[in-house]
Amino acid sequence: MSKEIIGNQNIQSLLNNSIKTNNISHSYLFSGPDGIGKKLIAKEFAKKILCLNENKLEENNCKSCLEFDNNNNPDFQIIQEAETIKIEQIRKLQEKVYEKPIISNKKVYIIDNAENMTPEAQNCLLKTLEEPPEYIVIILITSNENNLLQTIKSRCLKISFNPIETDVLITYLKNNLHYNITNTMLKMYEGSIGKAIKINEKIELYNKLNKYLENLEEENIIQIINNSEELYKGKENINEILEYFNVYFMEKAKEEYHNAYKYLNAIKIVEETKRRLKFNSNYDMSIDNLLINIWEEFRN
Ligand SMILES: [Zn+2]
Predict the structure, then answer these.
(1) Count of domains in the chain?
(2) How much distance in Å is there from the Cα of 49 to the middle of ligand 1?
(3) Measured by CB atoms within 10 angstroms of the end CB, which terminus of the chain is less buried, N or C?
(4) If you measure from the C-alpha of residue 67 to the centroid of ligand 1, how many angstroms do you get, rounded to a whole number?
(5) What is the pTM of this model?
(6) Spacing of C-alpha 146 from chain mean position
(7) Which chain residues have CB less than 5 Å from ligand 1, an ion?
(8) How far is the CA of 59 from the centre of ligand 1 (A)?
(9) What pLDDT digit, counting tens, does each position of 75-121 carry?
(10) Nearest by Cα to 39 from 78, 84, 83
(11) Same domain? 152 vs 17
(12) For residue 27, how far is the Cα from the chain centroid?
């Protein structure tokens, strides 16, 4: 199982080097935007820490690596909650922390979305970070470190992740996703491979939207409404669709800065539509309003 992890090469080298020199900290804070590979890199790092082979950096089939790939390694655990991480979960983890490793001579715990820990949960975890058993490695992952207590942060070795560089991202996408990337899409990725993959899953929709937006200024209101099928039947994707509108208009505003005001006004109209939909206004009527207002803005 060899996967290519793109971007943040310097961090990957740093972590590999700490494996090679056996210079591993007890606690790490992986911090940076969503969808740029923090978790993937953390898991690879965990796997190598636990590996029993002499050369841990080489692909190998030691017992630990095999069990790791089968999500079955008893010396590894990951907590990943989309919402709150409560104190009970941290207490459970702590009970396990004091049990010695079974296969390897280390144990690795990853807490993804660590900012979701309640303050009580963080305070509880602090005890382990202050006096970790010698075999313990804890990796906290966060895209919002402001929500972590200073006392937690000061106990961890911080590794700051950067958005993936645009050219690296484009090369990867061209080789792996096989579609034409528009400027708007590129902006929407924000250097995030996770976002790019999500967009790729709906590439047909985005291609249609792009064509639709390119023609928007040339059409009359009847044509616009007739061509807006994607919007009228796109209720479940409407947030992504409107985000695409906004990123597109922002790009246009930058390109045609002497006309910027009309694109900025269009963004305001989109924002107003988002607000209406959030408060459950009639869906079709909200879309009607959106189209008519944008058409009027562009007509002037
Ligand atoms: Zn191994």
Answers:
(1) 2
(2) 9
(3) C
(4) 9
(5) 0.71
(6) 17
(7) 51, 53, 60, 62, 65
(8) 7
(9) 999 999 878 999 999 999 999 999 999 999 999 999 999 999 999 99
(10) 78
(11) yes
(12) 22
